Sequence to fold (595 residues):
Amino acid sequence: MGEINYTPFIEEEPFNQTGLSDRFAQLAQQGIDDLTDTAFQKGCLSEEHTPSFLSYSETVEFGTDANLTVSYESDWDVAGSAQTGLTYWNGSTSSTPVMNYPPNDGVWGHIQNGAGGNLVATLPASLDFTQNFNGRYGVSAVLVMLNVQMERMEVYDPANQDNPVAPSDEPGLAVCIQVSDDNVNWYHLYLGDSQYTSGSAAGNPPYRYRLTERRQGAAGVEADYTIKIGSDRNLPSRRDISIRTIINQSSISNTVNAQNAQGGLGSFRYIRGAVSVIKSGSDYNKKVVARIRKANLTIMCLRANEVNP
Amino acid sequence: MSWKFPDSNLVQTEVVSSEELNKGFMPAAQEAQGRINEHNLASGVVPPASFGANSFIPDTHVESSGVCLEYVNTRGSGQTSVEGGNGATRGAWITIDGVAGHNSYTQSPDLDGAVQIPMAPFYDTVGSKKEPYQRPVGESVPRPMSVSFFVETDTTLWIMATCQAGDFGTAGERFGSMFSLRVNGAIVTESIFGSADVQNDSIGYQSGGDVLPDAERKQASPSSGTSSIRSGYPVCCECVVDVPAGDVVVELTAVNVISLSGDFVDDFVDRMAVGSREIVILKMMG
Fold:
């Protein structure tokens, strides 16, 4: 009831308890206590009155060159003939690229600022999209925007005391968005699956497609013509990697557990930008280092309705 | 007009009459019939936005059905299969992996998941080319990155399209591409991404030499110079655009510089591909 239907006293009507209570009830209880939108002038609510379509937002930004001190390494264990570090093709023991099955599809790490900080956005509380509107704090989905400025790639030879070496194939940097509920165990956002992976991958199929993954090779005009620092080990490659995605219930239900079965996460609280280093072809047994100059991560918890096209 | 109550106060020793009582109550009642305005509401009656605060904004006063923001689900329901779940027709996520029934390497572009971009010398919708298809097993139709929906009133759209792209040539030469968003048939100029424009971009070379003018033919960054490994490059097109009431079509489009070089476009059907990708559309209804 959004209206106040006041019944005027008529002449000679007694002012008894019932008559007065009725009028107060009409005014206060039925009216003021229960106003609906029809009681308001259109457009009367100012920005101080209206709810935001954002339930929460946060930006984490690494904007200084101190980030360049951070070394994102994919290394090679010469004695053990195994990949170590942040290696995209983490199952490779030869020039054939091999990535293990999820959840061990590549080794991914934090984007860091060189001062102990990680590029992680933290929600005020763990978010479970299966809850009702209030139980999920009115959040229907989380819009994530990640920007990373790649700086360069460097190549070294672990079989020769990590001396710089010219790359024989193009190294690259892979970036993606991951989620976690404990800030320790991180999960990919997958879309669908496939029977395929290259080579003899370890783990349980299927292979899954990392929805937010983007890759940037290091070679190109800049790497070819820019004056290199040191030697050919250094491939300047200043490029921007921008990723936008929506995290909703489907995204979370498509995370996988240690057995590569869907439903790895029920809720999540942390969102990060993650990186992995791509060693290609005959450089599988090299140490490849990636440098990132700047990065920022913005999350926006949307109080929105999902609609189909 | 704000409700000012009461119009007249009762005073001691005054005889209360029905007329006096009605005079006191009626203005308030009448003013509340749809004319309550901002002056009647205390500032902060709905908890204010506190961006960046360490808590979710309380939702006590928010009706889930009354939120003036919608986001368009471009993935389809379930997302259980590679193409983006049941009903996903917008061009989403596929692979080229050589598995029977999938796109194969021989159908280059050799990218981890791809659909081709037509080589016509104008912007065309990503994924609209007939082959290779965006496929899971059995996929047999193109899946263009095109989203169609209806808005009931003038609406502001915030559109974000990102993807993994690669330009691939047959003789070690690769040519850059430009991407853009097209809304209701019009290219949104501020969304243009890339450096393939032969008029605008002076960076580039052709076959490692400087003998040909950049503006006529070149290998445009960012993917030029790649050899056997084709990581490709990320693309991000964004815009905020107002649309009138009615049907709306949002497309991610691309054009490859090779199609502008004067060569026969039929010779270059495998030059351009897009892999993992996503379109985010927020309908910001004010």
